[in-house]
Specification:
about 10% strand; 3-stranded antiparallel sheet; single chain; Aminopeptidase; 3 domains; 10 strands; Butyryl-CoA Dehydrogenase, subunit A, domain 3; alpha+beta; about 50% helix; 5-stranded mixed sheet; about 450 residues
Length: about 450
Amino acid sequence: MSWLEDLKRSAAGLLNARQKPLSFTGLIRACETLASPRGDASAASIANDVLVGYAALPDEQKKLFLAALADRFGPDKSRLDAAISRYKQTGDARSIAELHSASEPKLQRVIRRLNLGVNGTASLVAMRQDAFRFAKDIPDFPALDADFAHVFSSWFNAGFLSLRTIEWTSPANILRKVIDYEAVHAIKDWDDLRRRLEPQDRRCYAFFHPQMPDEPLIFVEVALTNGIPDNISVLLGENRAAIPASAANTAVFYSISNCQEGLRGVPFGNYLIKRVVESLRRELPGLKNFVTLSPVPGLAAWVASVREAKGGLLTAGERTVLEALDTPDWHLNPDRYPGLKEVLTSVTARYITQARSKTGGVVDPVARFHLGNGARLELIRFMADPSSKGVRTGLGMMVNYLYDLRYIERNHEAFSERNQVPASSAALRLAKPAAGFKREAPAKGRKTESDEAASAEA
């Protein structure tokens, strides 16, 4: 059917090319029509006009258009007031259904009808990406984004997504997007991509949506190894020796990249790991360990902040050792600095298990992802990523999160319901200050991050 879809899109593109795009005022009027209770007979044509017209707007007018969507297309307040009144009077099922319907913002209806346009799903994902770019200039951005997120969470439900293997023989346009979207370990060139896809001990899996068949939504790169790796170079080295897939006992998820900024916050990433584990277990029953080799992207900024603040999660001795980080080339020969390996390893474990945001959540985004999926913090790896990005964002540190299939649900519940960080006993020991180090007292009257930290558990 792909050739028929291509023909329809081409015909629609030629038709739209002959038409003058709608003006800004025309776009708003068209959206008001889409928001009305009228039928969908002409909705596809109107949706096409809106999508083409929006794409033709300069950025300044796109901002105004998105702001107008947020401002003008909320719930019908008079209808909502009436529904609330009826519910208070009767409280029956019919009044509850009317209350639910009346409380729905009109923008959600507009978004659903815009999806009737040619390439509507991809166009709307791009529109939400624009909204993120212009968020500071959209007064009611939270309401606008909530409506997009609500609709997208249904459209991109994991049940609608297909898991596909990306191989070196996959179409070139897909391979190009893997290079472009790789967000963890940059792919240098086509040869680098080939080393990640072609060997028999390498895999790459991606989720696709039927309305965006050539656009990966998220992909994970997997290395099949013997044992748990302690640095990224053993996985990505140009001259490494491949092993037979059947000889591997460990699957390492070393890079997970979200591809569509417009789908930020849509929770399909957690299903990806579980589906990939199931696929690998069927293909290679000899696999015993499922782990990550993950960056710690917020570590450098966090360490800088706690070094600047008195007290908190650092001891006086650790603070002295960490003065080595003020030397620009410290990472080129870290062994020159006594105690640096021990302190950075301990501080990294503390950062993941104890540091909390203002809202009480785990600070590190990669940790939140894997812990939320049911993994546990297993091992801390010193200078596992000495690349410029790895040092700049994570002080060269990486960690292994373990997906133990026996305890995934238990770990998920501990993290999601009780805000506890599942961690190995080794990681928990590292998270404690070294013997003989005395933690500095915080300034009088000031609550430290450690005071607010949730407990960790093995």
